[in-house]
Amino acid sequence: MIEKKAREAAIRGRVVRVILSNGEIEHYVVETKDRRGYYLIIPGLFCSCNDFLFNVILRKRYEKCYHLLAFHFAKEHELIRTLTVKEKGMYRYFLKKILYGLLY
After folding, report:
1. What is the mean predicted confidence (pLDDT) over 68-80?
2. Edge-to-edge strands, sheet with 38-42
3. How does 20-57 read in b/e, with b if 16+ C-beta sit within 10 Å?
4. How far is CA 65 from the centre of its chain?
5. What is the value of pTM for the model shown?
6. How many helices (H) does the chain have, and how many strands (E)?
7. Among 52, 23, 48, which residue's Cα sits nearest to residue 37?
8. Residues 14-39: tens digit of each pLDDT
9. CA of 54: how far to CAs of 37, 51, 61, 94, in Å?
10. Which of 6, 37, 52, 100 sees the fewest Cβ atoms within 10 Å?
């Protein structure tokens, strides 16, 4: 089930690579299902979603949440979308979206 959700997220283009316009920093995010927020991910290590905290870290039910699996599937199948943003836009726009993802 978790793999199916991950594939669906990747195929629907919800895995996004965000690059600052000066090219210095890149981040990876996965959009929430309603596309109103983002989960910040560090590939292979971390996701800001509640499932990662509760089911991966605390309960140890899974090795990865489906957002991290979606990233790996999207990378393997070249499905990662890329957005280039200015530094101000990064922090104004994406910080709000990531905070929304934390509350989702």
Report:
1. 98
2. 46-47, 38-42, 26-31, 15-20, 81-85
3. eeeeeeebbbbbbeeeebbbbbeeeebbbbebbeebbe
4. 10
5. 0.86
6. 5, 5
7. 48
8. 999 988 888 777 889 999 999 888 99
9. 19, 5, 9, 24
10. 100
Residue 93 tokens read as 């726009």
Tell me the C-alpha distance between 66 and 23, whole Å.
28
Alpha-carbon torsion (52, 54, 56, 62), positive or negative: negative
Domain residue spans of the chain = 2-103
Q: Which of 98, 68, 77, 97 is nearest to 5 (CA)?
A: 68
Confidence of residue 62 (pLDDT cuts 50, 70, 90): very high
Count CB neighbours of 64 within 10 A: 20
